[in-house]
Specification:
Number of strands: 0
Distance between the termini: 46 Å
Bound molecules: zinc ion
Number of domains: 1
Number of helices: 5
Helix content: 55-70%
Shape: globular
Largest sheet: none
Order of helices and strands: HHHHH
Low-confidence stretches: 1-7
Strand content: under 5%
């Protein structure tokens, strides 16, 4: 029953994946507050983006070996969602440093880890021609 910090993070996930979820949830929240005046909750568009991002993380084939999404060789987002999440990251990324320095720092560290070999192989096998 004491499983989550914000409701979006299932229990039992490796710390890295929990951080990745927390990071994207926070970034979408900041973006919505700044651009859409969302108070205490996300607007409908941002909620949709949030749900989509969580779904992609749930379905990520790499599981615990997952590289950060920026580094991931498999682009699993559909193009319009990809654009939206990039806008959120551009906008909220720098703010994370001030608001949530630990998560921001860990994200940078995670990003520096090379993608797992299995990950790279899988990507090579699925890359679109
Ligand atoms: Zn919004």
């Amino acid at each position: 029953m004491t499983n989550t910090t914000d409701g979006a993070v299932p229990a039992g996930l490796p710390a890295r994946l929990r951080r990745e979820r927390q990071t994207i949830v926070l970034m979408i929240g900041m973006y919505c507050r700044r651009h859409h005046g969302g108070k205490g909750g996300l607007c409908q568009a941002c909620r949709e983006l949030h749900d989509y991002a969580m779904l992609r993380l749930d379905r990520c084939r790499f599981g615990a070996d997952k590289p950060t999404c920026v580094k991931c060789p498999v682009h699993c987002y559909k193009p319009d969602m990809r654009e939206r999440v990039r806008a959120v990251m551009r906008d909220s990324g720098p703010r994370m440093l001030w608001r949530h320095p630990y998560l921001a720092l860990m994200h940078v560290i995670d990003e520096r880890k090379p993608a797992a070999a299995a990950c790279v192989r899988a990507a090579a096998a699925t890359r679109a021609p």
